[in-house]
Amino acid sequence: MNNTNFFPFERNRYFYGKLLTVRDFEVEQRYHCTKRSLLNRLIHGAGVVCGLGVTASDESTLMIESGMALDYQGREILVPETLFRKLQMLEGQETLNGRQDAYLCLAYHEEDVEPVNATGAETGDQRQFDLTQEGYRLFLTAEPPAYQSLLEAAGRENVSVLYQSEDLILVLSVPSILSAGEEFQAQVLVVKHEKTPPVQFSLEGENTFVESDNGRVRLAYRESREEKRCVYTVDFPLRSKALSDVDSQLFPAGCELNVELGSHHYKNYLTVEALVHLCRSQEESRLRCRQMDDLSRHLRGRDIPLYLAKLELIHSAGGVFVGAVTNLPFQQAVSSEGESKAGGAGDLAVTTSVRSLEYWQKPDVKAVYQPSAGTLHLDFGIPSPEQYDYAVAHGTVDLTMPGGIRVNSRVYSQEIAHGLGVGAVDVRLSVEFPDRESGETALLCGNSEVFKSKNIKVSPPWVEAAAVVYPERGTMRIGLWLHDTVDGNLVRVHYFVQKPERDTSRILSQRRVSLTVTPEFSRLSRRGKLQLQAEVVGSEDKSVVWSVKEENGGAIDRNGLYQAPELPGTYEITATAGVDESVSASAFVIVE
After folding, report:
1. Where would I find the beta strands (DSSP E) of 194-318?
2. pLDDT tens across 511-539, in order?
3. How far apart are alpha carbons 335 and 509 in whole angstroms?
4. 574: closest CA among 591, 590, 560?
5. Distance CA 421, CA 476 (A)
6. What is the pLDDT of residues 2-59, one digit of tens each?
7. Which of 253, 269, 349, 452 is most buried by its number of CB atoms within 10 A?
8. What's residue 306's pLDDT?
9. Range with the poorest average pLDDT among 39-53, 235-249, 353-367
10. Can you tell me the distance from the alpha carbon of 158 to that of 276, in angstroms, rounded to the nearest whole number?
11. DSSP three-state, residue 287
12. What's the mean pLDDT in 215-227?
């Protein structure tokens, strides 16, 4: 039944002699239908159960496979056979004019069928329907979804839309409850077009509860040119500090968002409403999550449709045509019982993300497999383009003015060393002169004719300066062309020289990665446990790989929890930086 209210649950109470009316039978149906819908929503969630794949049969026709789905009210939506639908035949096609993309949506729908004459009914109600047929509604919409409602209905927390334009949408989500020292992920949903240039963005701001070098969190992402997906999620691994009972915003003082799309650059300062509570332990975190996990959180998004596909549209004089098709862009799918029990025996959900590395770092890939959810996440580290550094030098040269008439005369310096050694350099010159208006010494850069105006009282000399560089000797000569008389016997010329270089070793020394492990020395009983902490400085990648040097020296997990062996002795535990395998630090444990 098309009933949007789950509560209250009321069922018929039967007794001998009860007069059954239409209302009683409606209550009977409503009770069972509503109970089943509620269980569907709470146990299985909402989304496609099977089938309902969308492909372009031709440039103007969509093929929708048969299948089943559950909507956000727990109602079953059944498409019993494969459908072929022209864009012009679908509801909402009139809204596509001028739009780059659209969404094909599926919603529950029912209608009364089999009209009959109702004998004995009141005047005007003689025509009724014998059956109510449950079905579906397929329609197109050019409007993007309400991302906050959509992601919250899927269980995401602290959802904020960071950026929204015709070419790109960025939506951030962060867990609201964490335990001290816990690894967690900030997620950014990326929605773009097939022809959108490679996406690059960063989000940075001060933070009080996330481990970092400088008290700031920076989420940076550079999309590879091989990325073909139009809708995907980027995961940013973070770790909370060893704090407890702390409530804090992710960016309490606001954050800076930078977005690059080809030649388009966007920068803005945002206030992100993302409140996070830090618990002292994982058990307290689970308890708090259970306390907040009320019924209303599971019944969100009652009016959200199922987005079966995102369509790239092509407009021409002949109408609107289908370009690329992205199935289930927002992953509205229900895992079947067989898949969950098999631990991934069914389809494996594979997601990817890309990290931007420094240009001298080696590319790498990290894989995280979760058997219970049947998911595999691949995190690729791609080196950024090589960077240049610059060496600079500055100095002055005093040129002696000629005697007599100086108009249209030229003076030159001797050959001088600029100080940056051999090789090509870039030279900029400026001429020093006294500014009578302010009484200060000023520097003329460029053409002095620009300042010959009644509105400006600055009077620089009318001269031009040039330099000749000798790359093989690391020297240069400076010359002046005097267009008019210059006061005094000397003219001082300032030179600024810069030289690009690729001295990777020097750049590395400025950004050197270091690693410390605490505590360095500990005593532990046999089979005892010790939590070790590793701090990586000089890199955004804070991951480490733990190992025990001795073969029978105990065991340590990926979070640094060490368990001592039965055999007494002194054992060395080593942490290796994930960003650079040559950087490591050790701690020693005496097992008694």
Report:
1. 199-206, 216-222, 231-239, 246-249, 255-261, 264-270, 275-279, 306-316
2. 678 889 998 888 888 888 889 999 888 77
3. 50
4. 560
5. 11
6. 545 666 788 888 889 889 888 888 888 888 888 888 888 888 889 999 999 999 888 8
7. 349
8. 93
9. 353-367
10. 8
11. helix
12. 85
Q: Hey, what are 141's tokens?
A: 């919409």
User: Helices marked H in 421-463 — which ranges?
Assistant: none
Supply 228's token pair: 């073909």
The pLDDT score that the predictor gives to residue 68 is: 93
Count of residues in the chain? 592
* CA torsion through residues 269, 274, 280, 283, sign: negative
Q: Rounded distance, CA 466 to CA 448, Å?
A: 14
Report the distance separating Cα 459 and Cα 473, nearest Å: 37
Report helix, strand or coil for 472.
coil
How far apart CA 568 and CA 564 sit, in angstroms, is: 9
Sheet of 569-577, strand order: 521-524, 584-591, 569-577, 544-548
Q: Tell me, what DSSP letter sits at residue 513? A: -
Largest CA distance in the chain: 133
Query: Which residue in 265, 256, 257, 261 sits closest to 200, CA to CA?
Result: 261
- Give yes or no for a contact between 542 and 239, defined as CB atoms under 8 angstroms apart: yes
Q: What's CA 51's distance to the chain center, in Å?
A: 30
Q: Looking at the predicted structure, is the pLDDT value of residue 444 above 80?
A: yes
C-alpha 178, offset from chain centre: 20
Taken in order 89, 90, 91, 97, is the CA torsion positive or negative?
A: negative
Yes or no: say if 500 and 388 are a contact pair by the CB < 8 Å rule. Answer: yes
CA distances from 27 to 1, 8, 33, 533 (A): 11, 11, 10, 61
Percent of the chain with pLDDT strictly greater than 70 = 90
